[in-house]
Specification:
- There is one protein chain.
- With 261 residues, this protein is an alpha/beta fold.
- It has ten helices and seven strands.
- Helix 5 packs across helix 7, helix 8 packs antiparallel against helix 10 and helix 9 crosses helix 10.
Length: 261
């Protein structure tokens, strides 16, 4: 995940148009519910890795009763998240901070739950980030994430073209590789759920929306050039989703109550 800011103003505007205010990942508000399904959240302390604009963090507090610390590499996103928290009166329960790539700057066993939506996708050393999540989790705590992953086939020209259109750093692995990382580190009750069929339908709806009803608003907000860029970006994404090259999935593991030494 590069240190330079990759999410610029028009891209953020576009993501919020599609997924809802404060959300920068597919599924918007419904995605948080899927990640936290079956996990006790009331009064728990959650770390949100790659928190972006803070939408999921506010939801985790308002709808799930948790206190959240959100971290992100990009200072402009954190500024907006902090401003939004203050406006909502959630600044005591939703804290945000800019971080550098690498080790998590938190003590051992300081969170009940670690959540990440679409951020681990961009981290090259997945074993390290999953180990760090394990370290900061309390015994019995959960890691739960939603991510963009890939098939086992080598990357095609279509995938490489889509990366180019996105302009983001991607380090895609398969869901099975995620499972292997978690097992090696010591997580138990590992659940991998491939959600590619769900997003294949979603991305088609999104594409129809942005080249149709939403397009005039996009031109007004983003300008013609960027509006057309995003239409092409989504077309390229439809291709790799429909070919089954890009996968979406949920991944969850629990830190045991007692570590095996």
């Amino acid at each position: 995940m590069d240190q330079q800011d990759e999410y610029y103003g028009n891209m953020i505007t576009m993501l919020e148009l599609i997924w809802g205010e404060g959300y920068m990942a597919p599924g918007g508000a419904g995605n948080v519910k899927k990640m936290l399904n079956g996990i006790e959240t009331e009064g728990k302390r959650i770390l949100d890795i790659g928190c972006g604009l803070g939408g999921p963090a506010f939801e985790m507090t308002n709808a799930f009763g948790a206190d959240v610390v959100g971290i992100d590499l990009e200072a402009p996103l954190i500024k907006r998240a902090k401003d939004s928290a203050t406006k909502m009166g959630l600044q005591d329960r939703c804290k945000f901070r800019t971080v550098k790539a690498g080790a998590l700057d938190f003590p051992n066993q300081s969170f009940d739950i670690v959540v990440s939506s679409g951020a681990i996708t961009q981290v090259k050393d997945k074993a390290n980030i999953f180990s760090e999540c394990y370290r900061v989790l309390k015994p019995g705590g959960y890691l739960t994430c939603y991510d963009w992953t890939k098939s086992e086939e080598p990357l095609s020209e279509d995938m490489i073209y889509w990366f180019k259109m996105e302009g983001l750093t991607y380090a895609l692995e398969t869901l099975e590789e995620y499972k292997t990382h978690l097992k090696k580190i010591g997580y138990i009750k590992i659940i991998i759920n491939n959600a590619s069929d769900w997003y294949r339908n979603e991305v088609l709806k999104e594409y129809e929306l942005i080249k149709g009803r939403l397009y005039p608003l996009m031109v007004e907000l983003l300008g013609q050039k960027d509006a057309d860029h995003f239409v092409e970006n989504w077309r390229a994404m439809v291709v790799v989703c429909e070919k089954g090259e890009m996968h979406q999935g949920y991944c969850r593991g629990q830190r045991p109550l007692k570590d095996h030494s």
